[in-house]
UniProtKB/TrEMBL annotation:
Residues 1-72 form the PI3K/PI4K catalytic domain. GO terms for molecular function: protein serine/threonine kinase activity. PROSITE patterns: PI3_4_KINASE_3 (PS50290). This is PI3K/PI4K catalytic domain-containing protein. GO terms for biological process: DNA damage response. Gene3D superfamilies: Phosphatidylinositol 3-kinase Catalytic Subunit, Chain A, domain 4. It holds the Pfam family PI3_PI4_kinase. It comes from the Eukaryota. Signal peptide: none annotated. It comes from Aegilops tauschii subsp. strangulata (Goatgrass).
């Protein structure tokens, strides 16, 4: 889902004259996940695995608890 979202954002950036002239885009990386919290690009500085962001590393907090209260 995020890959599709980033592709859509890049399309919008490319189609807008100002951002196209500045060659703005979202840089994406191919990731091969090994587990929900580890993948090939784990070495990138100041990044957090998506699972840790959504659920927190202890699986009881994170963004889902803050913004998706009541959701599954």
């Amino acid at each position: 889902v995020m890959e599709q979202f980033f592709s859509l954002v890049n399309m919008f950036l490319q189609n807008h004259r100002d951002t196209s002239e500045r060659r703005l885009r979202i840089r994406t990386y191919n990731v091969v996940p090994f587990t929900p919290s580890a993948g090939v690009v784990e070495w990138v500085n100041r990044t957090v695995p998506l699972g840790d962001y959504l659920l927190d590393s202890n699986r009881i907090g994170g963004a889902h608890a803050r913004y998706g209260t009541g959701d599954w």
